[in-house]
Write a structure and sequence with these properties.
single chain, alpha/beta, Ribosomal Protein L4, Chain: A, 32% helix, rRNA-binding, Ribosomal_uL4_dom_sf
């Protein structure tokens, strides 16, 4: 599979790159994708929910009525969950929602996401570029030139570039990441992948470890 390399003005540079078959040419594994996305979303949950149980409610410990002779059930404490203001039975406690999946499954999920985008013809290869300073207008000009304004895009760079990252940060639906930080969720969320030409070899090495 070969793709043309374009510059940030949307012009064809005349160069072509061969996409690694081990990443972009595999049959997507939907179950691996499901597991990796599920893990990503689970890790976004704070898990800080907490309600007070019987032992934690700050109320009087005095026996609220006599044991016998009232015609009702026994009651020893106003902290009991059966009374208004009492503790909650089996309330939520702080917890971590994350779980473990194997590294090979994570790698397969990312490769499957790349392969799915390749099949959908949703990948563009960009010639390496840089900005002199972080300016939102600079990145907007790139998107305008590529006719991707308002489209959910994900730009994958070989390494972090602060000028490019800061230029894209305030633009809705535009995200910039690196080969090491890219995840399955972001790959699937984007409608168009913009991959830096110099990131392809690193991507192949990273995902085929």
């Amino acid at each position: 599979m070969e793709l043309s390399v374009i510059n940030i003005k949307g012009e064809d540079t005349g160069k072509k790159v061969s996409m690694p078959e081990s990443v972009f040419g595999i049959e997507p594994n939907t179950h691996a994708i499901y597991l990796d996305v599920k893990l990503y979303l689970a890790n976004q949950r704070q898990g800080t929910h907490k309600s007070k149980e019987r032992a934690e409610v700050n109320r009087s410990t005095r026996k609220i009525k006599r044991q016998k002779g009232t015609g009702g059930a026994r009651a020893g404490s106003v902290k009991s969950p059966v009374f208004v203001g009492g503790g909650r039975i089996f309330g939520p406690r702080p917890r971590t929602y994350g779980f473990k999946i194997n590294k090979k499954v994570k790698s397969l999920a990312r490769k499957s996401a790349f392969a799915a985008k390749a099949k959908a013809d949703s990948i563009s290869i960009l010639e390496a570029f840089n900005f002199d300073s972080p300016k939102t207008k600079s990145y907007l000009n790139v998107l305008n030139s590529l006719a991707l304004t308002g489209t959910k895009t994900l730009l994958i760079l070989p390494a972090i570039d602060n000028n490019v990252y800061l230029s894209s940060r305030n633009i809705p639906k535009a995200k910039v990441t690196t080969v090491e930080a890219v995840n399955t969720y972001d790959l699937l969320y984007a409608d168009r992948l913009l991959i830096s030409e110099s990131a392809l070899s690193i991507l192949e090495t990273q995902l085929n470890k």
